[in-house]
Amino acid sequence: MIYLDNSATTRPSKKAMDAFLLTAETHFGNPSSVHTLGTDAAKILKNARNAVAKKMHTEAGNIVFTGGGTMADNLAVLGAVRPKMGGTVVTTAIEHPAVMNTCAALEKKGITVKYVKPEKDGNITPEAISEALTEDTQLVSVMHVNNETGAILPIEKIKAVMAGVCPKALLHSDCVQSFGKLPVLPETWGADLISCSAHKIHGLRGAGALYVRKGITLAPVIYGGGQERDICPGTENLPAIAAFGAACEEERNMEKVKVLSEMLLRGILEIPHVYVNSPEDRLPHILNVSFSAVPSEVVTNALSNAGICISGGSACAGARKEKSYVLRSMGVPYPDSGVRFSLSDENTEEEICETIKALKATIPMLYMALGIRS
Questions:
Q1: Where are the domains of the chain?
Q2: Does domain 2-9+253-369 have CATH number 3.90.1150.10?
Q3: Active-site residue (options: 103, 166, 316, 353)
Q4: Which residues, in sequence order, are bridge partners of residue 340?
Q5: What is the pLDDT of residues 199-222, one digit of tens each?
Q6: Residues 6 or more apart from 108 whose CB is under 8 A from it?
Q7: pLDDT of 90-121, one tens digit each?
Q8: Is 232 marked active-site?
Q9: Of 51, 44, 52, 53, the residue nearest 19 (C-alpha)
Q10: What class has domain 14-248?
C-alpha cells in the first residue's frame, strides 16, 4: 500500500507509539491526583507541554492541550468572540470546516462574519483581509496552510494590517497543516491563538493543542474541573498527549518531501489535460490537481484499487460527501475533479515512481471511458 494521504492523518511514529504505550500501561495515574502515580503523570504532562511549546517557539504556560485540531479551533473562535458585543469576525472562504462551521454558528448568534475569497492561485492577500476589517472586528481567523491546496498564507502581514484598523481584535490561525512542517511563530507573528494537532505530525488522534497568548482570556465553551487553565477542562488524554510530545521531539526531513513532491509534479504534468490547483509556492507536502473533468471520487477509487491512497480534498468535508468549496472559491476549471496527494518524509522515490506509473496507466483509460480526448 502506498500512502499519500498524510494531510488526513499520518502513521504514528515508533517513538510516539512507545510513549503512548508506556504511559497507558505504566503511568496511568490522573495528572490532577496528589499521590505518587498522579504526580508521575503530571511530570509526563509537563514534559509533553514543554515539547509542544518548544516546537512553537513559546513558553509552556501558553500551551493548552485539547482533544484535537477541531476542538482547538472551536475553543479559539467561540472563546474569543463575545456575541453580546456585536461587531464582526473576519475569516476566509478556504478555512477548514472546523472554523467555517464554527463561524456559521456565530452567525446564528447575530455576529456578522465576512469570508474573504482567495486569489485564483488559492492565496489570501493582506490587502483583501484589510478591506474586510472594521473598527468593531472582534476576531480574525486565517489558516497558515490550506489543507487542500497547500497555499501558505501571510499571517504576520495580516496582523500588521489589523493593527491599523482594529488593534484590539484577536488573531487566530489554524496551523494544523503547518505545525511541524513550517516554523510556527506566534510571538513573531503577533498571533493570539494558534491551533495544532498531533495526528498530522506522526502522533496519535485524540490530542491537539491551542496556543493562548499570555493575557488573553477566552470565554468558557466547556465546563469542568479546571484542567488546562479552565479552557479545556476534563481529565487529559495523557497517553495521546505523551505521544504528541514525543512526535514534537522528532526532526523531519523537509528537503526529502520537497524532492519527492517535485518529482511527483513532474510526472503528473506528463499526463494530458492536467490542471494544477495548488500554487507554485505551496507547502511541498500537499499537491492538488484535476485530471480534466474526471470526478475526484473516480480517480481516488481507481488509485485505491491499485493500492495507492489519496483523497479528493479535506477528509473532514469528505465524510459528508461534499464537493470542495475551497476549489470552487478559487474558480479553478474543474473543482469537482480535484484530488490531493499529501506526502511525508516516510514516502520513498520508489513509491512516487509507482504512483506516476499507475496514473499514466489509469488516467488515459478514464479519459476514454468519459469521452475525453487525450
A1: 2-9+253-369, 14-248
A2: yes
A3: 316
A4: 288, 311
A5: 999 999 999 999 999 999 999 999
A6: none
A7: 999 999 999 999 999 999 999 999 999 999 99
A8: no
A9: 44
A10: alpha beta
